[in-house]
Amino acid sequence: VQLQASGGGLVQAGGSLRLSCIGSGRTLSMYTKVWFRQLPGKEREFVAAISGHGRSTHYADSVKGRFTISRDNAENTVWLQMNSLKPEDTAVYYCAASREFSLSSSPYDYDYWGLGTLVTVSS
User: For residue range 67-79, what is the model confidence (pLDDT) as tens digits?
Assistant: First the structure.
């Protein structure tokens, strides 16, 4: 079971990026999926979560109205569309998955993690 995040890069404030997370393993395709972000020396911060069927989502207040999480289970892929980016969105972004149905904002509730992708927003 593996997750692979991609799509990070350097963007100016106000710009957009779309992150992708591709999973391997058929059972993983229906798991709750989530995005976290982290800066060096800081705790991992919840960004957004989506249920296994894709009908329920949960966002951190700091990204509501700017970020959108979505998924395609047939492709075993989750996306994070990030619009109106701000310098404070700069971080390494990680995708993760959990067998549980709750859209938890705690990183301890997620069993599978991918390597991160760096997003840098310049002012």
Answer: 999 999 999 999 9
